[in-house]
């Protein structure tokens, strides 16, 4: 009897140590799903792509996407579209446009959204002329909202501080360090041009006023044409673990070593990405795409089209060991065509906020991904 009680106590202590006290076993279920954008329709937008999702300090959700004006291609003129939800994803505001790049030949590309919880601001960082197609140089731009995403500042050119190297943030979210080292720092990671590719992070220690270049994990051969199977880290999603390290989940552009995700860790708040901290996660099979990652209450979540060759089968995985292993069960969110995805969770202390994660993703019904959908996932819904 005493032994049983001791074992139960030990279990509770272990769970608390892992930061998951009082939470039942994860068994996720799609609670609600809504289409936010459908392309090819009326109006000024041909295609919506590259969805981003974030919480805000005020408890809202903000969804963003590139609204590609004339074609579905990455190059070309675009708006940045936003929709807001003030009721935990139940209803969403009509679309409004945060930025309009006019009629640029090589227009804007999203992007990374980062919330400064200390200041209560939301920043959106994107690139202009990323592909250097009939334009030069490439610029890294920032817009900021101080009113929960309702109004936005004019664009600010961060290349004045960072230099004009092509930098495509995200796509996904940047983070504000919640744990030491460098608590309060903003860390936004992205990738370089096709040749000068690799993962690069930019850092701000003053709430987004000034930015500097931080960690880099460069491709090999760097700044030279790539071949199939070369080492080519590309689009990425950083998340902070509860030990203060930052793990970056990276698109493996040329299928180096595996058809799976690369994961690299920074132990110094985004200053460096040592090669010793690079691993290939064979469980996270990937068709070369931008994926979502999130740390919530000590659990690491991952979303991607879980297939080695095709962008189909949008799947949510979770890890109780900071990504060293993944729970066998996975939640299939959508079996059909699925592309880029991004995740968030509300950070309130209410029981309700602890129960859900949100996944925004490119969702297709025929052969391409023609819509952007947001799924609200009840983490303990299955039991
Ligand atoms: C941004 O600043 C850089 C460096 O000063 C400059 O070369 C570039 O033209 C600027 N971009 C825009 C869009 O103003
Ligand atoms: C979808 O993902 C699940 C979980 O990883 C996997 O078991 C299954 O084989 C995948 N199906 C396809 C068609 O890719």
UniProtKB/TrEMBL annotation:
Residues annotated as signal peptide: 1-19
Alphabetically ordered keywords of this record: Carbohydrate metabolism, Cell membrane, Cytoplasmic vesicle, Glycoprotein, Glycosidase, Hydrolase, Lipid degradation, Lipid metabolism, Lysosome, Membrane, Phosphoprotein, Repeat, Signal
Pfam families in UniProt: BNR_2 (PF13088)
Entry membrane topology: Peripheral membrane protein
Domain of life: Eukaryota
GO cellular component: cytoplasmic vesicle; lysosomal lumen; lysosomal membrane; plasma membrane
Primary location group: membrane
EC annotation from Swiss-Prot or TrEMBL: 3.2.1.18
Residues in Sialidase domain copies: 59-344
GO MF annotation terms: exo-alpha-sialidase activity
Function: Catalyzes the removal of sialic acid (N-acetylneuraminic acid) moieties from glycoproteins and glycolipids. To be active, it is strictly dependent on its presence in the multienzyme complex. Appears to have a preference for alpha 2-3 and alpha 2-6 sialyl linkage.
Subunit details: Interacts with cathepsin A (protective protein), beta-galactosidase and N-acetylgalactosamine-6-sulfate sulfatase in a multienzyme complex.
UniProt protein name: Sialidase-1
Lineage, opening ranks: Eukaryota, Metazoa, Chordata, Craniata, Vertebrata
